[in-house]
Structure formats: C-alpha cells, structure tokens
Design a protein that fits this description.
With 140 residues, the protein is α+β, with helices and mostly antiparallel strands. Helix content is 33%, strand content 16%. It has one domain. The protein has a 4-stranded mixed beta sheet. A hairpin with a 5-residue loop joins strand 1 and strand 2. The termini are far apart.
Length: 140
C-alpha cells in the first residue's frame, strides 16, 4: 500500500482536536473547520501554557527504505503571523495528496495556540515568551 493511502484514512477526531479546529477556523478565514479536521492531526505530548494541545501530523517514509532525510515544519510560532499557519495547512493538504514516502515529515501547523487564538493575537505565548527566540539548540 502506498504511504499516502495509509495517512489519509478517515478517523473520528477527538473532542479536543475538534475543538481546536473550531478555534483555528474562527480565527483564520484561510483555514476552514473541515479543512482542519480533514488533515487528521494528532495531539502531541505537549500543551501550551493555557493547556491547548500542540497538534501535529507525521508522514513516515516508505517502510522498504531508509528516508532520504527528515523534515520538521513548524507554523504559528508567532501568534500574530497568521500566514505561517495558513501556509502550513496548505502544505499539509499537499502532503496528504503527494507525499512520496521518500522523506520523513513531522508537521506542526500551530506551535503557539495561545498567541494566535486569544482575542487580540500576539507574537508571544501566554507567559509573554517569544517562542522563536527560545527554542533550545546545541550551538546558539
């Protein structure tokens, strides 16, 4: 079976994913509720400061070979940059249709739900932290 067929199976969303898709769709005109649900996002083991789940989708490589590389795609690090979330949702739709299985993708469309989904979106999270400037790395 082709990898993309496995990844686009219909699943019933959990109430929390359903709720988050509703919140995202109400905030962003470019990402509809059904579009969000149709991406079959999963909950990561992490939550935001305010307890919102950090959602992701994984596109594994073909089982028969080692991936050519791993790709981490993150949108919505700054809550006031709507376009990054919109673009990543469009990229998820493209991967759902055309994922070749040659790379291992992990995609987080919205890393800062607290910043994006509050009444007046902000760059920072609920603790006032700019996530983009606080990602731990070995060489920074």
């Amino acid at each position: 079976m082709h990898a993309s067929h496995v990844l686009t199976e219909e699943r019933t969303p959990t109430p929390r994913i359903d709720h988050e898709c509703s919140r995202i769709a109400k905030k962003l005109f470019s990402v509809g509720y059904e579009e969000c649900l149709n991406r079959n996002l999963q909950r990561s083991s992490s939550v935001s400061v305010n307890g919102a789940p950090i959602l992701f989708k994984e596109y594994p490589p073909l089982r028969s070979r080692k991936p050519m590389g791993r790709v981490l795609l993150i949108g919505g690090t700054h809550g006031d940059e709507y376009s990054s979330v919109s673009v990543v949702f469009k990229w998820l739709k493209t991967l759902d249709q055309f994922h070749s299985g040659l790379f291992h993708w992990r995609v987080y469309p919205l890393m800062n739900p607290d910043g994006l989904l509050k009444k007046k979106s902000s760059r920072t999270n609920a603790n006032g932290v700019d996530l983009n400037r606080n990602f731990p790395t070995r060489d920074w």
